[in-house]
Amino acid sequence: MKMGKKSVMGISFMVGTLMFATTAFAEVSSKSGYDQAKDALKFSADSLSSKFQNYTINSSTIVKDNGTIITEQDNVNKYDLSKHAVENTTSETDNNRPQIESYLYRDENTNINYDNKKKVYYVSNFKNANNFEMFSNPFKAKQAGDIEEIADAAVGNLKDSVVVNVKADGTKELSGSISESQIPAIANAIVSYEIKSIYCSNNGNNNNIIFPNEISDVYVKDANEDMILNKDGLIQTITGSAEISCKDNQGKVHNLTFEALETVTNINTTKVNKPDLTGKNVQQSTDEGSMDIGDPQIYVGTYKNDIAIENNGKFIKIGERTLDITSINSKKITGKYHEEYIKGYEKYSSDVKNINFTAIFKEPDNATFQIVDAKGSKLNASLFLEPNRASIGFGFENTNDESYEWEYNRVFN
Question: pTM for the whole thing?
Answer without folding.
Answer: 0.62
